[in-house]
Amino acid sequence: MRKHLHIGEVAQLLGITPKAIRHYQKLELLEEPARSPAGYRLYDTRAILRLHQIKQLQALGLPLKRIRALLGRQTREQPLHVILQALDAELTAQIQELEARRARIRELLSEGPLEQVEQLPASSRMLQQIRQQLEQEGIQVHPAIWEIETKVISLLEDFRWPISSTLLEQFRLLMHEQPELWRHLLSIYSRLSTTLEASADGELLLQDQEIQALITDVVKYLPVPEMQKPFTDAFAELMLGSLSPQAETMIQLLKQALLEQPHQEP
């Protein structure tokens, strides 16, 4: 008299299909069972308990690939509490990510009706850090300056330009490892913003010597590595899209200041 169950009997006992059991074996979730003289698969109680454990974890929402990683090979079983702790940590991380997404969606909804994807405001950790530092220093940045800052950093973060990683890293170093230089740059932003408030006309901005001098100072401190065509053309076209008239004028002044900047040999 046989002591082990056939695959159909195990499937009936657990409420699964023989095909599923064979699939688990193919994925190495279950060891290949012994066979009877007639060639039938024979499953002992250890295999039955293993299948029951797989079924329980599937009920918790885990895919089979993840279950395999949690359980390990059948020859080195993990205690259930270790498996559940790992599952709890994974679900906690997923919940936090979902909560962050939900908070972002609610923030967008609170800003008013958005009709097109192009209206989505930028979401950038670096921009948040810059805004926090400006608030800590009590600096009010002119909307045109912040518009350009947002556009540049968003383009660098959203696309993999040849200069993206280098330029963003230089920004981070400037912010976090050169605080005196960074505060000096913020003070230039502040003076530039004050001057812009008094000069709303774009043509006057182009002729304003004080603004031109301040922008030249900004260019001295901002890292500007070179980028080759056709990337430069694509970056410029994306940069200039949907800018306010004042911001466009500022871009012209920045471009002029960059052209006048002496070339530094590497």
TrEMBL record:
PROSITE patterns: HTH_MERR_2. The keyword Oxidoreductase does not apply. Keywords: DNA-binding, Repressor, Transcription, Transcription regulation. The keyword Hydrolase does not apply. GO terms for molecular function: DNA binding; DNA-binding transcription factor activity. Residues 4-73 form the HTH merR-type domain. It comes from the Bacteria. It holds the Pfam family MerR_1. This is HTH merR-type domain-containing protein. It comes from Thermosporothrix sp. COM3.
